[in-house]
């Protein structure tokens, strides 16, 4: 019975993590439809505002490995809780950006939070998944990620 209880607890953890991943990625997908509005408001080309997507990805590129080091040193919860908080701060700041430069800074902050959360989520999945179901757990989380990214632009308008 204890094996079944452990498996149910692991599935509950997986579902909570997938829901969090879905929410984080939906929030990130919201940005796409508003990029042209930033271009208009800041008087710059859409390609310049498109740098906001690049700087987000750059933050992830730079911070994914350090996120793993943080997880090893301080635990996964720091990333799983801190990442979405940092992403939210970056997204909130982006909404109030008054220049392209401040928008780029806020998007980098959001990307940093994304790097922390997504690295922490993958590490946590590996921790909780039994070896024979590890691929299934990771694939399920990737599915939640994809659904969030797909629905985000619709939420953003």
Corresponding CATH architecture: Up-down Bundle
Top-tier CATH class? Mainly Alpha
Poorly predicted sequence stretches spanning 5 or more consecutive residues: none
Number of strands: 0
Task: Spell the H/E element sequence.
Answer: HHHHHH
Enter the CATH topology name.
Growth Hormone, Chain: A
Shape: elongated
The fourth-level CATH homologous superfamily is MFS general substrate transporter like domains
Main sheet overview: none
**What would you report as the Rg, rounded to the nearest angstrom?**
17 Å
The N- to C-terminal Cα distance equals 48 Å
Can you walk through the features of this model?
- By secondary structure, the chain is an all-alpha fold.
- It has a single domain, classed as Growth Hormone, Chain: A.
- It has six helices and no strands.
- Helix 1 packs antiparallel against helix 5, helix 1 packs parallel to helix 6 and helix 4 packs antiparallel against helix 5.
- The longest helix has 29 residues.
- The protein is elongated, with a radius of gyration of 17 Å.
- The protein starts with a helix and ends with a helix.
- The mean pLDDT is 90.
């Amino acid at each position: 019975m204890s094996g079944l209880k452990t498996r149910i607890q692991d599935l509950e953890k997986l579902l909570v993590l997938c829901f969090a991943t879905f929410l984080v990625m939906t929030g990130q997908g919201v940005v796409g439809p508003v990029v042209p509005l930033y271009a208009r408001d800041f008087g710059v080309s859409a390609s310049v505002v498109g740098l906001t997507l690049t700087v987000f990805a750059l933050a992830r590129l730079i911070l994914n490995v350090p996120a793993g080091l943080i997880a090893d040193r301080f635990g996964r919860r720091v990333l799983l809780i801190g990442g979405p908080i940092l992403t939210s701060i970056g997204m909130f700041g982006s909404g109030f950006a008054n220049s392209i430069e401040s928008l780029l800074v806020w998007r980098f902050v959001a990307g940093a939070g994304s790097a922390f959360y997504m690295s922490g989520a993958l590490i946590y999945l590996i921790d909780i998944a039994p070896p024979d179901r590890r691929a299934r757990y990771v694939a399920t989380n990737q599915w939640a990620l994809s659904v969030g990214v797909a629905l985000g632009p619709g939420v953003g308008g």
